[in-house]
Each structure stands twice: as structure tokens, then as C-alpha cells.
Amino acid sequence: PPSDADEPASAARDALRRVFGYESFRDGQREIIEHVVGGGDALVLMPTGGGKSLCYQIPALVRPGTGVVVSPLIALMQDQVDALRALGVRADFLNSTQDPGQRATVEALFLAGELDLLYLAPERLRLPATASLLDRGKISLFAIDEAHCVAQWGHDFRPDYLELSTLRERWPEVPRIALTATATPATHTEITNRLGLADARHFVADFDRPNITYRIVPKKEPKRQLLDLLRAEHAGDAGIVYCLSRSSVDQTADFLVSNGIAALPYHAGLDAQVRAEHQSRFLREDGLVMVATIAFGMGIDKPDVRFVAHLDLPKSVEGYYQETGRAGRDGLASTAWLAYGLSDVVQLRKMIDTSGGDAAHRRRQSVHLDAMLALCETVECRRVGLLAYFGQEGASPCGNCDTCLTPPETWDGTVAAQKLLSAVLRLARERRQKFGAGHLVDILLGRATQKVTQFEHQTLTVFGVGTELNESQWRGVVRQVLARGLLAVEGEHGTLVLTDTSADVLRGTRRVQMRRDPERPARSAARSGS
Ligand code: ADP
Ligand code: ZN
After folding, report:
1. What residue stretches are annotated with the Helicase C-terminal domain (predicted)?
2. In 3-state terms, what secondary structure has residue 295?
3. Atom of ligand 1 nearest to the CA of 24
């Protein structure tokens, strides 16, 4: 028989095999589980798909009492509980979707000590009734899932999570385990401070997902580019396509279906029943493509998602990493593909500028977007950039991302940037008028459009000084100059304005090295090329 010292470990291994049917722990899981089973506090930073759930589920089974899981994913609680019950775990939940009778039943089970796990929506903790309920039962541990939601600095802040800071004072003897897939140093620090986890053990997993190939391409005809990718590399594969708006979800799904791809839409504007049906078909059937807003995917566990495609720029690297992390959970080769263009940059900047909230909030969103743009425009290994962002400095180039596989050509774009910035400077003098990127490019190319003649912009010295580049090249220049903060977008009209650093370029004290966008061969030429 095992010695006393081995007991928690063997009980945990036993639960892993007997309840969950797995042979062995994954990297990191055993240590975390033994620590929590032993009553210690823990902060777990582990990428999506890493296996965080077992880290609190097994200790909850091994320790006496009920494990209380705080999760913002109310829509998924029923599924999570059903999945656990199917394994014979006594699980239930309390949230606003239940009627008082249902809640009373769950509360009685908890008080009778007949629950291994109780999922709780964070807003319930604010209710005095909940605290008193928890006081009267026996709690084995608190698990705080999606712990980054407590971080105001993060990308997914939920005010209700601030309430969780009281857990420690109120139930000092109950171990707490906080878990998240977001691990930027800033978020890590904020979770630690807000949840009082300075004395907890911190488990930081390797965030690399080596089986995912990251690719970021300039957006031209996004739906067509996506179709080409699916046909060439992912025929018959299951995947997720993310779009920013509901209407582009619908249009993209229609487009794929009309081109013979089995695709389903998913967004908050669809009927709850339709959404549920699409989600369950995606999970159960092979080779379906889910076209969705970011409302889809949190907590979705499908191991063989072969690609995640973004047709619009994500708002933050955290979001991007979490979404792309849904590809290849089974460890097999998978693709994360993103198409982004100038209009994305302008649109997101506008959204930030016109969003409510305080200046500090807008500033944070803007920092998040800048980091995302830097990742898009980098000429270095994407993975090195991603890992550095999450605090893993000094990785070597991966050999499995687009910049490693086809190193981008660069060119000295200083003169082009100067021309663009001086055009912005000239237009800025017409204070009452607001001009966006399209008009600027028309001026640089010397096009006498209606708007150009209306404002007599053909008389500007910069009119027609940029004919060495074509329209798409100019849009690339604007994009990259924006991405580097040498130019900014302002207000609801997407007006381009100079920044503090623009002067360095105009004066010639700062050179601007640019990434050359690949020129896409005309489709007919590509076809007849064989
Ligand atoms: P996360 O919450 O970190 O995104 P999950 O807890 O959902 O990840 O786990 C991802 C997948 O890995 C699930 O299908 C889970 O059942 C599986 N898994 C977790 N731990 C193990 C293990 N030790 N052995 C085999 N599969 C595991
Ligand atoms: Zn690389």
C-alpha cells in the first residue's frame, strides 16, 4: 500500500484514470494538482487546450467538500456540468438562467454535501445570500477560471470579478486556484495583486504551440483569399473563421457554402436554438467550417480544428492568441491565418476613439492594438514575437511561420513615408476639413477625383508626387506608417493626423524600413501558368 506521503498523489492519479479515463498527466498538471490537493493556493498560466480544467476538478474530487468554480462562461455551464455528470462526477451550477426552484434544489444538494463541483457565475458572489450559503456548506477549494477577467489592464475585464478579492478574507482556510490562458507580464501581475496571490505558487506553462503555423497576409479579396487557402491546404478540414461583424459572418458563410464548403454561421444575432445546433454540429461532425464572431469558441473543446482564420484584425494579441489557440489541440499540424488591411486599422482606431469609457480605457485599448499591429508588420519570426509578448523572451526563430518560411523582402520606405506625411501636413492646414486615407492616396497618385477638384487639391505641391507606387502599394505604406505610430487616425471620419514622431521622419532623422507586400499574381495568369 502507498505510504502516507504518497497518498494525495495516488488519489489524484486514481481519479485521473478512474473518472477521466486518462493514462497520465500532461506537463505541469501533476505538480499543480498535488499542490492544490495539499491545500496550497495556485495561479496557473497555461495556454488554451493545455488542460487547465483537470487542475481544479481532480483536487475537488480528492479533497473533502465541494469545489466552487467561478466562471464567466454562463452559457457553457450546462454543457460543462453535463459532461462531468456523464463521467459520474456530482456537478451542478448556480446562475441567472435558473428559476428560484432550480436554484433551491442545487443549494440543498450543496448543503447536504452531495456535490463535488459547483459552478458559480461571478455576479452571484455579490449576493449576501450566496455568501451565507457558502458559509453553511463545506468548500474544498475555490477555482477562479478565466482569471484574467479580474485584470482591468487585460482584454476581457469583468467588473464582477473584482468581488473575488474577498474570497481570501472571508474563507482564509480554503485553497484558491486561479487559472488563465492570458499570461502577459502585466496581466499576471494584476491577477496576483487583485486576487491576493502573492504567496501562492505560480505555475507558468510553456506558451509555445509549435504545431501551429502562424501566417499573416495583406488583405485584398478576403473571402477569395480564404477560399484559396481552404482549397489548397485544408480541403475537408474542420476550422473556425472569425469575422468582426455579424453581417460579414453571414456573407462569408454564404460565400463558402456557394463554393462547395460545408460552413455554418455563428453569432449573437442568431436564434439561441440555431446557435446551439450549429455548435453541436461543429463539435460532432467532421470537416465543418464555423464562421463566427468572437462570441464563439470560449470553452469549446474540439481537438481536431485544423485551421483558425481571421478575416479581420483582432483587437489584441491576447485575443488573437486565444482564438488561434483553438487550432490543433490534438498536437497535429494546424494553421493560424490572418488577413488584415488598412481599413482594419482605420476601423479599429475609430472604434477606440469613439468608444465610451474613460481616457485610460481608450489608452489601454490603443496599446493592445499597437501590439497587434506590430506583430502583423514584423519581419522577424511571428512565434518569437508572440512568445516575447507573453514574457517568454529569447526564443529562436521557429522555422514554422510565414516570416521564417518565406522571409519578407524589405525596402527603404523613408521617402514614401515623407511624401505621405507631408500630404497629411498640407491637408491639416485646412482645419475644417477631414480627409481619410483614400483621398490622400488619390492626391499622391495625382488623380483629379471629384473630391480633389472640389477642394482644389490638385494645386498642392504634393499632388502627383507618388506615381512611383501603385494604389495598393500606397495603402501598404499608409498601413505600415500607422502601425508604427508615425501617423494616427482621429475621430469618426478616420482622419489621418501627424503624431509626435512624424517630425523625425519629415526631418529625415528617422528612416523607415518597410515590409514589401507580396504582389498577388492575377488569377488568370496563375491558372494558365501550368
Ligand atoms: P484548457 O481549459 O486549458 O483550455 P481543457 O481543460 O479544456 O484545456 O483540456 C483540453 C483537452 O485536453 C480536453 O479535451 C481534456 O479532456 C484534455 N486533457 C486534459 N488533460 C489531459 C490528460 N492528462 N490526458 C489526456 N487528455 C487530457
Ligand atoms: Zn517563425
Report:
1. 222-375
2. coil
3. 23
